[in-house]
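Continuing the batch. This is chain 6 of the set; chains 1 through 5 are on the previous pages. Same settings as before, nothing changed between runs. Recording input and output for traceability.
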Amino acid sequence: MAPLPSYVSGAWHVPPDEGAPLTDAVTGAEVARISSSGIDMGAALEHGRQAGGPALRELTFHQRAALLKKLGLHLREHRDELYALSARTGATLADSRIDVDGGIGVLLAYASKGKRELPNDTVLVDGDVEPLSKGGTFAGRHVCTPLQGVAVQINAFNFPVWGPLEKLAPAFLAGMPSLVKPAPQTAYLSARLVELIIESGILPEGTLQLVCGDPGDLLDHLTEQDVLAFTGSASTGRLLRAHPVVTGRSVRFNAEADSLNCAILGPDARPGTAEFDLFVKQLVTEMTVKAGQKCTAIRRALVPSDLMDDVAQAASERLARVKVGDPSDPDVRMGALATLEQRDEVRRQLKKLLDAGRIVFGDPENVEVIGADAERGAFMSPVLLRVDDTDRAEPHEVEAFGPVSTLLPYDGAEQAVALAARGLGSLVGSVVTADPVFARRVVLGAAPWHGRLLVLNEEDAKESTGHGSPMPGLVHGGPGRAGGGEEMGGIRGVLHHMQRTAVQAGPSMLSAITGRWTPGAPRTETGEHPFRRHLEDLKVGDTVVAGPRTVTLADIEHFAEFTGDTFYAHMDEEAAKANPFFGGRVAHGYLVVSFAAGLFVSPEPGPVLANYGLENLRFLAPTFPGDELTVKLTAKQITPRENAEYGEVRWDTEVTRQDGAVVAQYDVLTLVAKRPEETA
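Output for chain 6:
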């Protein structure tokens, strides 16, 4: 059997040697062989920097997002093939869907976020303008640009599809190419995933590479512009973090490590309550999904001391209904561990845990298996332990990375928080309670030790994604033992692959560099109303000045009667005089905004299709009867939409009184048509 090919430097590389065997988790039969012999790691990284990076940086965020969407839809068409291969890793169909569909879901989520939350540009402007001078001629702003290296992934064996894709999506959207180094145990599934991607031709050449086998001297070739992302054990994460090139060249390093995650049952969740049942169901689910081989699985179940027997009995009864065996059998709930070696490792760690407690369910050496050989396949019974002495260190230090969890007693919220913290940093914890006081005390107390916390009860149970499921829009990572890093988190994950730079300049230069009009920069008045121009003809800084319009007392009273807003500051002179902010009757803020719209609008049909919102609205000074209002509307940001007949224009809007005081400031958001010939 030929070793798995790697895809590096624009070509498939077949190792010249036989490689090491990879086995089917269910049957023990050889699935593939693996070797990285003959790969020039330095050349692979350089190919990513020289070919993949420039190709990505030429694309806007929206164009990259469109490719991610196209890729996600393409992979959806090949799910059945990936499911079938995933079964050889020991995964049931439900397990495979978490891995395969979950990974595809991350691609589509980042495609959506890229289109909705990022500009159709190659640079991301971060935050508002920071004034740096009294006269307004010197200011600063932060810009984010893609790092000009390669995002190197070193992945764990338990999620061979989701793992590569959840790292690829934010890196690709940021503008960085990726090199995937899967864990050997399940590399054959990651390799097929990458084959499907490369064969599709969707991604530009050099933006995705694959190294199957030992990484060799890969890390020796990293530079300051590269990113190293790792998922796996805490001990391996520490070794990578301490690599001399990583430390010596300050390579960005992100680790997501296995941790001793906990679930806490609230004291209100007595037997017979929805919360008690939810806790037990979640515990058993986290023990058996992927045969417990999840970095987010529940390793410590913290239970009120007077409910330990009840939880042990209920969980044991539920575990007894779990059928273990060939994952292709529809009756099987839990498949095999990834390898026989992994099963042996779980048993070794389990023996350490047994020094502190006892088994309440399961036999680590024997299991009844459906449709397979219990010894040839890496099968193991789920094992639930009980440790009554919470001072013992083992439950808070030893992780058996398989279908193993430990019940621990606590008394009071403070002890629950203290026990949770003894894990020294976790990816996730959950609190199952209907008591908001208990939930607040535990969540805020445990938060410094956790990357994510789930509060589960009857209210959210039906739609909850569960304890063990990281979501693309939320951070995945945790402090301390969990690696100290963050993945995903929506656009936060994109920014990890970009350099944030503070740019200091005058308003004109800031506008030119960022593509956003900056207060103090020139405004362009041509005599033609900007609303008469198509998107391609508009320029940042194009301005219309309209007014003045006098606000009368009759206007204020009519607006109050028409809208029903008869707040005393608008209608009661004596009461308004007593208000220290006004000193007399004032116009409604929304009357000011409405008058401003009437001043700057060009009412005839034209390129402006719709006003779809206001943002950052602030009323900065009162408008009194008799005041004259003038409005300045300036094109602040112009964003064409990909494959659409229109784009978005953000207008800086400033409304002033006759004395020059700014009474209102905000952004108007409009949709503006492209020229017909451009659309065609």
